[in-house]
Amino acid sequence: MVQRDLYLQRLIHNMWNGEIKVITGIRRCGKSVLLFDLFYEYLISQEVPEENIIRIELDQRRYYKFRNPVTLCEYIESVVREQKDDKFYLFIDEVQLTTKVTDNENGGIEVTIYDMLNELKAYKNLDVYVTGSNSKGLSRDIATEFRGRATQIHVFPLSFREFYSYTGGDERKVLDTYMLYGGMPRLLALEDEKEKKAYLSSLYNELYIKDIVERNNLEREDILNDILDFLASQISSLTNPANIANTLSSMKNEKINSSLITNYVQHIIDSFLISVAKRYDVKGKTYFKYPNKYYYTDIGLRNARLNYRQYDPGHIMENIIYNELINRGYSVDVGVVSDRSGGGNVQKEIDFVVNDADRKIYIQSAFRMDNEKKESSELASLMLTKDFFKKIIVRMDIPHNFYDENGIFHCNLIDMLLGRAELF
Question: Partner of 348 for a Cys bridge, out of 101, 148, 196, 381, CB 3.0 to 4.6 A?
Fold first, then answer.
């Protein structure tokens, strides 16, 4: 079992902070293992009595009755009230599976899981942890429904560092495997290449597509699939809903409305399958509405979506770097700088503008820089910022890290992913 120390420490740090701990992430990325195995084992090691850890898995038939939030709340209250001198921990898995109910005993008001969790939060001897796999029914509501009293911990599929900590071996060979199949945890138990491909494909067919369609009552599953294919083929490239709509209209020989595309893309983002990176004017300090970049939460899911036909290591590398930065808790944008050297106004791109509170760095992703034209292109955008923030080029074609004469840090990808190179 991969230990997931980053997330485990976040849970430990937030114990008994008076807030509900909300663990989000794409389905099958390891949220349940983190809470029900790793954090549970930690509590047991701290001599917490097993009977004081209340575990409810709403996707298991024996817990279906607790999808009614009133039934759930009444049960938990009956436990914690009777033993006020004991401390209890409540784990609820897949909380988005709960339903709204009408409370006839209190004037027929509509009651949701948020109402019940806010009520349970008042018990000083109860610490609450929930997991959820869809932001539309959870993450978006944290600030409002939980009245600002929730701590969100977002879990990603395995990072390369976590993946490598389990596999060991030749770093480059393991990275090649990771770039092809990604970091969904169950892959570590599969050795056969066909089994890995079949598993990743089944996640789409049996989980993700059905979840998005059923939860949002989508009428055009075919368009949803087309959008997923399009975004998979366009990772690390700028695009917008109008561009997607035009492409699909031409492909399907029918008029596809861009507003429909906007809604469907948002549903995909809500399911945590993809993330969006907005463009940021480095000098003007403003955001552009469109176009944006879209990255797959797991590169293996992206490759499976395209049936492994479009293996472009440069774009895959950029996607992995983006996920790594987000996973570390940084705010990440796509940078835009203007080049007026030739008398015009040419916009050039910096792959990532990375913010950590009041600190900032610029990062370019370059699979290789094997000629002067490529080198000049990668360096130019960074030099145009004309500021003193650290500038980094992450590369695959250098054996060791170094600073060049412009003060730009050239960093080996594996060193970055394994935490051997300091970014800030």
Answer: 381
